[in-house]
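Final report, Chapter 2: Outcomes

The project's central promise was a pipeline that accepts a single protein chain and returns its three-dimensional structure in a standardized token representation, suitable for archiving and comparison. That pipeline is now operational. To close this chapter, we reproduce one record exactly as it appears in the project archive, with the input sequence first and the structure output second.
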Amino acid sequence: MLKIAVYGKGGIGKSTTIANVAAVLAMKGYTVMQIGCDPKADSTVLLRHREPVTTVLDLIRERKNDFELEDMVKKGFAGVLCVEAGGPAPGMGCAGRGIIAALEKLQEKGAYDFYRPDIILYDVLGDVVCGGFSMPMRKGYADKVFIVTSGENMSIHAAANIAMAVENFKNRGYASLGGLILNRRNVKREEEKVQELADDFHTGIVSALSRSPLVEDAEEMGQCVMEAFPDSEMAEEYRILAAEILKVCKKEADDGA
């Protein structure tokens, strides 16, 4: 079971990117589980034609422990298994607790043994890297962390903070940094700035995604690009990204063997 955490600043296109990568992998025959670790609980909406998944925190609040795996895990496009951690009511608690509760409850309910996913993708908000938001990095959860960023200054700043958190955890056996995913915003010196960030953390740019109107067009349709425009150049970019992510993870596994 390959476990991958993808972080990035809010609004950088992280969830859209992950949903399309999940779809690519599922279409290749992998059993894929996507776990949304953002209080907005919108990570998987494009895989489900905007039909929401009841969050784990909502299930716990409303039904205590009286619910089944099928209440937490819903199938989306290409059979992707969709889970949303959720968050507290505004001002009523720590958003990171939703991530902790979701991951603990999935284990408690035997989700991984029942569904036997080949690949787990954690979609994690990267504006805050503390407490529950660092949970997917921890030993036993993700193996690799990838960071989605553009060349915009706030995105670069958030990506640097995430990379620093991964660096600080490396001696604890936590997930290691797999690389950066450039989601272009077409700002000045974009690739140069992201490459500088990659160099600072001795990593690389795994793949670069174009700023394509097809992404917004697919979202308007309530679909991911892989469903709405599977023959497009943008869909091919997601296929390349998925292949590069697997290549990085396989290399790490081979090096550690």
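Archive annotation: The beta strands are 2-8, 32-37, 74-75, 81-84, 119-125, 144-149, 176-183, 205-209.
This record, like all others produced under the grant, will remain available to the consortium after the project formally closes.
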